Amino acid sequence: MSPDPDPDLPADDETAVGGVHIKYLIHCPRQLWLYARGYRPEQRSDLVAFGEVVDDTTFTRRRDVDLGEAKIDWVTTGAVVHETKSSRAPAPGHSAQVRHYCLLLERRGVNVRGGVVHYPLIRRTTDVVWDDQARAEAEETEAKAQAVIAASTAPERLLRGKCRGCSYLDYCWGD
């Protein structure tokens, strides 16, 4: 197991919130807090490795868009954000992540139209609307992520049943 993170020193710039931060916030605020402090057990996770394989082997003609604090899977003509997930079911964090990417692009002067989450394993997509309400949700989610990252103590862990498959399980529930 990696060394314990220093709870007083976030590893990432507190103002730089990327898509992973948003995804972790929605899934588990404790996961976000640990991630921001440099605890990264994802490198040993079979599920994360599987997700990387799915990402690397689908939509191979597209190019990532690196914003520094976030890396978007790709953006099509007309400024539609695309994100690929290895999940077999849509989750709230997936759409929240795309809304966050839309917000980041808009702040850079891009006239964003919306987004699409791709689920290649089930051959489905989910459209993500980008409008005033979506912008407000993205801004609120970003503020929540910044508050969790800035907190001096870790948020409470979720009920153990919600942690199935999480690469942080050993840290949160280990003896």
UniProtKB/TrEMBL annotation:
Alphabetized UniProt keyword annotations: Exonuclease, Hydrolase, Nuclease
Superkingdom classification of source: Bacteria
Name of the top EC class for this enzyme: hydrolase
EC code(s) of this entry: 3.1.12.1
MF term (GO), any: exonuclease activity
Occurrences of domain DUF83 (ranges): 19-173
Pfam family, one: Cas_Cas4
Alphabetical list of InterPro entries matching this protein: Dna2/Cas4_DUF83, PDDEXK-like_dom_sf
Protein name: CRISPR-associated exonuclease Cas4
Native source organism of the sequence: Streptomyces zagrosensis
